[in-house]
User: Fold this.
Amino acid sequence: MRRVVLLTSLLALLSPLACAQNPTFSDWEMDWEIEDEVAMMDLGSDYEFTLDIAFWIDNTRPVPLEVDFSTETENEIFEIDDPGSITIDGNTNESFDITITGSGMDSNGDFYSAEEIFDTITLTASESVGGQNTGSRELSKDLQFTKVFELEPKASGSSKNTVVKAGTSETISIIVTNVGNSDDSVTSTTFSFRGCPQMDYNIEEPLEGMVRPGVPISQSLELLASNSHPEKGCTLVITAASEGAGRSFTGEFEFNVEAPSQTIDEPDENKTGDLRDTDFCDTYDCEDNSLPNVPMQYILSVIFWAAILRRE
Assistant:
């Protein structure tokens, strides 16, 4: 019995020592400040963005917590600035930021799509004790671009320099391209002429409807020039209204009107001013002068009769 009591007492004395050799620390937590699943990359007028995402770490331990941060994205095209290595005091809750910068356009000048999640960023916080990694926490956040609505209306002729002859028509193609990063709708397309008020046009159906990025919509338009239209350079102004942007975008198409050539009838020298008797000239020689040509026979006849009358 005495041996049992001594063994129990020895175990009781050794238990604190064992706990001291293998201490058990309280846990620490990390999470985003904003609970939204998607962080929006807000594009500016230059289509660049800077996105700050805040997160916090709650160290409930009585001792400091050393953490090393690292980040990665799926596409790896953005610049990311994280806090690096930090020390958080015991029983402390602190907030930090990661900053993401980049462009909403690729190297070719085309927009990245804003219709879906574009990328995902992963933040990893690794705990360090005595220079050794003893555990980590990880957070993820989806990234998506804000929508940019922009239309590009233009026209294309059958040749490089379109010419419309007065009194005729010429058919061209009207094209509206979505050069933004999201689906849009053309609510209306209108046309006007600058410098040529006598010009008119005809289009069979309105150029309206859904237009996706990189997939243009088109319609034929007939340019009509009146018979009296002077020879002149003209400009067709195309205006397309965007539902997404809430405003209109314009494009221009230059062409020339060619007036009909005017011919002047020249007088026939063989008919005007020629009072000569053509039959007579066929028989006798005629001189080209303003005095009448009297035949020699007439002169001799007059002299003969004058002589006879004088004798009588």
In short: The helical segments are 2-21, 278-283, 296-311.
